[in-house]
Design goal:
single chain; alpha/beta; Dihydrofolate Reductase, subunit A; 2 domains; nine-stranded mixed beta sheet; 9 strands; 24% strand; globular; binds NADP nicotinamide-adenine-dinucleotide phosphate
Length: 218
């Protein structure tokens, strides 16, 4: 799994008002090439509700991969671009066992494939990834946001992190950072990564890291 994000120098992926247009044009082209090269793009429901992304490949030529929304309570808007901008495959909405049945049916009627994962509360990421793997969906890219990034990292499900670092600082204690969630207590408990590449796209610097650590326990 590749975690992909665009971040300001102060570690934010969106401002306090949730504006998240951070990448420069050259970097957006790189992201669209990466999208065309994976089997699926995954995002959290808050990203869908905030940005209304289509998550298709449209800046370069290439096949749009499957789109996956992590949406425990089936809140994905039926009018959202992730559903209305049709791709080659239906959008998959992963919900938790307790998601309202009528919402699940409405999503199915709107053309989505709905996967009910085992857990109550939040989508069970491990079982979701296992079932995707069994269907041949092996190269997955996650495009945030910060809470989903944390969940995937903490369960040791991310192999690679690719972050575009934009030369800007936006501040704000309520701005979303690259990784949100609970966090670890001590620096020594932090996930370890190894720098693989430094590239320049326009004014952005793209850092690619291999993730070493397994599940975070502390
Ligand atoms: N700059 C960038 O590269 C970039 C990329 C993406 C997003 N963003 C920005 O990030 C912000 C959204 O980030 P966010 O952290 O608030 O939300 P998020 O990570 O997009 O979505 C979090 C939500 O996903 C759902 N979810 C389902 N299963 C989950 C699981 N196992 N673990 C964690 N979450 C799970 C939860 O809602 P339920 O309980 O309802 O399921 C959770 O609240 C937006 O402002 C967006 O613009 C920036």
């Amino acid at each position: 799994m590749i975690l992909s994000a665009a971040m300001t120098l102060d570690g934010k992926i969106a401002t306090k008002t949730r504006d998240s247009r951070i990448s420069c044009e050259e970097d957006l082209l790189r992201v669209h090439k990466l999208r065309a090269d994976v089997d699926a793009i995954m995002v959290g429901i808050e990203t869908v509700l905030t940005d209304d992304p289509s998550l298709t490949v449209n800046r370069v030529k290439g096949k749009s991969p499957m789109r996956i929304v992590l949406d425990s309570n089936a809140r994905t808007p039926l009018t959202g671009r992730v559903l209305t901008r049709r791709g080659e495959e239906p959008t998959l909405v992963a919900v938790a066992r307790n998601a309202p049945k009528e919402r699940v049916e409405a999503l199915r009627s709107a053309g989505a494939e709905v996967i009910v994962t085992g857990s109550i509360g939040k989508v069970d990421l491990q079982s979701l990834l296992l079932s995707l793997h069994q269907r041949g969906i092996k190269r997955v890219m996650v495009e945030g946001g910060g809470n989903v990034n944390w969940s995937l990292l903490r369960y040791g499900l991310v192999d690679e992190v690719r972050v575009a670092l934009a030369p800007m600082i936006v501040g704000g204690r309520d701005a979303t950072t690259l990784v949100e969630g609970e966090g670890v207590t001590k620096i020594a408990d932090g996930m370890r990564l190894a720098l693989q590449r430094i590239e320049r796209y326009g004014e952005d610097i793209v850092l690619t890291y291999r993730v070493f650590s397994q599940e975070v326990t502390g």
